[in-house]
Each structure stands twice: as C-alpha cells, then as structure tokens.
Amino acid sequence: MTNSISDSTKLYNGIQMPWLGLGVYQIPDGKTVEQAVCSAVSTGYRSIDTAAAYRNETGVGQGIRNCGIARKELFVTTKVWNSDQGYNSTLSAFEASRKKLNLDYIDLYLIHWPVQGKYKETWKALEKLYMDGSVRAIGVCNFNIHHLDDLIRQANVIPMVNQVEYHPLLVQQRLHAYCESKQIQLEAWSPLMQGRLDEPVLLEIAANYGKSPAQVVLRWDLQNQVVTIPKSTNPKRIEENAAIFDFNLSSADMERLNGLNRSVRFGPDPDNFNF
C-alpha cells in the first residue's frame, strides 16, 4: 500500500519512479512554472512531468535548480513532440530539451503520441539515448494495445511507462491489464478530469472520507497501481493533492469508482488525432 509521498514504484529496469508527481501542462514558462515546481518540491513531491510541447522546460529547469533539493533526488520526465519524431530529429529534440532543462540527464523520456509511420524510428532513438545513459528510463504516451504490440515486435527495449488519459470515467481496464502483463507502468494524465469532479458517487465517497473529490480520485489512482501527475500552480492545491497518504479507499468504494467508467475522453483519441 502507498502510504507516503516518498513512495515509488520500481520500473522493470530497477529505476524508482514516484507514485505522485507534478504535471505542468499549460503552465506558462518563467516564474509561474518555476514557482509551481518549487512549491511542489517543498511539499514533498520529487517527480516533475513536462514536455517539449508545453514550452516551459526552461522554467521547469530553473525551478529544479532553485528548489533546494539535489538533482539526484528528483525524477524529471519530458517528451518528444510529434513534429520532431523520426530517428535523427528525435535525437536533436532530446538535446534541445536537455539544454532547456539544463540537466545532464533525463529520468524518463517519452514519445508523446503514436504518430503513424514515425513512432518506430522514434523508439530506436529513445533506445539509443537509454543505452548511452542520457536517460534512465524510456516509454510512451497515449499508446493503445495495438500501438504497443506493433512497437514491441521490433523493439530491443520494451517501454517502461505508458502515460495515458486515465480517470474514473475512462478506466481503460484492458489497456491497464495489458501493460501489467508486459511490466509497463501505467501513468495517468488528466487524472482530475479537467476539474469535472461533480459525479454524485464521487461526491458521496469524498464526503464519507472527509476528503475532496480530487483527493479521492488521486487515491483511487494509487490503489489501482497507476502513477498520477495532477497539475496545479496553486500552492494550497498542490498541498491538497499530496494529502492522499493518510487514508485508504475500501474495496467496495474502489469498485464503485471503477464502475463510473463510461469511456469518456476529455483529450484526443490516440486512434484519431491530427497533430
């Protein structure tokens, strides 16, 4: 059971990845994201998730340098964007991200979306970065089972993480089971459903535990063995999102939350995107 913000999951290559991290999607570069990183670290977060497409890697890097915690204590994720996919262009994109973050290495580097005709060559570049020691772990985002099957057939290294949209309205049980069978750690983006937390069952469960609906959803993530990265710039909200280690949801309440699944997406469909 996950009982502390310092708890982590062990990826299949032995690397420890924190169960809870700070997501920085749509947080402006500069002081805003820098302060969000510092607030999160002071609260106890040790994982920060950014991406080239977020255009805030420079500010994230500044926050990492100013947060008062040694680099080796932090777990930093970034991602290669779709327009940079391909072997050589991915290697160039990685160097650009590393330079903006001003880091010697990245803990986790991900393919942001499964761009048809490109993600296999992109994966070869990630494998090279991993073998060279530039990244400690590699993985993908938004890959469905058929994408993973296709990639794994020609891969030398199986993805260690699959970061996907995951929340009580989109439980993705088949994908989750598949990833578990391959020792791929599932990670949730948009865990709080872009703030749409007014489901009656969720409100009822939250009231019963004396917790907010957001805290219940994040606890549900962890008890489902899913890494979660809620986004916030508000220090109080960052603290609230981390106050999920002093209670456990009952198995009955876990099932009630699982039962909310309606396959509702708030983000794009990995099988139908055009960017």
From TrEMBL:
Question: Where do the coiled-coil regions begin and end?
Answer: none
Has UniProt tagged this entry with the keyword Transcription? no
According to its UniProt record, what is one Pfam family this protein matches? Aldo_ket_red
Q: Write the record's keywords in alphabetical order, separated by commas.
A: NADP, Oxidoreductase
Is Oxidoreductase set as a keyword in this record? Answer: yes
Question: Where does the NADP-dependent oxidoreductase domain lie?
Answer: 21-261
**Which PROSITE patterns does the record cross-reference, listed alphabetically?**
ALDOKETO_REDUCTASE_1, ALDOKETO_REDUCTASE_2, ALDOKETO_REDUCTASE_3
- Highest taxon in the source lineage: Bacteria
The Swiss-Prot or TrEMBL record describes its family as follows: Belongs to the aldo/keto reductase family.
Q: What is this protein called?
A: Aldo/keto reductase
Organism, by scientific name, is Paenibacillus solisilvae
